[in-house]
Q: What sequence folds into this?
């Protein structure tokens, strides 16, 4: 079974492709899905449906985890009530729900990006090696999922330079 997406996927990261491949292989080893060659899969489209539904379930899982990540980001700076409201608003918004229902990289990239933003915001309060490492690690996962996540690289750098500025200037201290 070949999971290479082809040269057309050069603008997309590969994390999602390999995550779906690992999920399908795991389900194959568990006996839930029976893999085969192209001819065998054409004869038994029920197995192809199982693969497609499992990939959709993975996208839905990352969509749900994104709502949870947004809640924790909200808890850092807002009240718990506001964090719950923002998470509920995201849970019913059209774009995140649609991305979670389809086999697309968006919900996966959104989750990893929100995790990077969460640890970037934690850097404002406690600049530790663990927070720097986790912000960078999750940013890297978001980037290899979808390259447009490189724009999220602003958050760890902004948090670092903001904290460095505040620590040198007593007027802006917490």
A:
């Amino acid at each position: 079974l070949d999971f290479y997406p082809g040269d057309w996927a050069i603008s997309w990261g590969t994390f999602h492709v390999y995550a779906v491949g690992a999920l399908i292989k795991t389900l194959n080893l568990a006996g839930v899905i029976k893999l085969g060659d192209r001819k065998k899969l054409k004869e038994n489209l029920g197995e192809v449906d199982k693969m497609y539904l499992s990939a959709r379930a993975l996208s839905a899982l990352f969509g749900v985890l994104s709502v949870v990540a947004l809640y924790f980001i909200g808890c850092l700076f807002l009240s718990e009530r506001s964090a719950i409201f923002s998470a509920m608003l995201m849970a019913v918004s059209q774009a995140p729900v649609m991305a979670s229902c389809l086999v697309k990289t968006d919900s996966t990239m959104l989750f990893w990006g929100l995790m990077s933003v969460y640890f970037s915001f934690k850097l404002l309060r406690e600049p530790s090696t663990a927070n720097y490492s986790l912000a960078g690690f999750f940013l890297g996962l978001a980037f290899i999922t979808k390259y447009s996540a490189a724009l999220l690289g602003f958050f760890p750098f902004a948090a670092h330079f903001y904290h460095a500025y505040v620590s040198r200037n007593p007027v802006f201290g917490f």
Observations:
- The chain has eight helices and no strands.
- The longest helix spans residues 45-77.
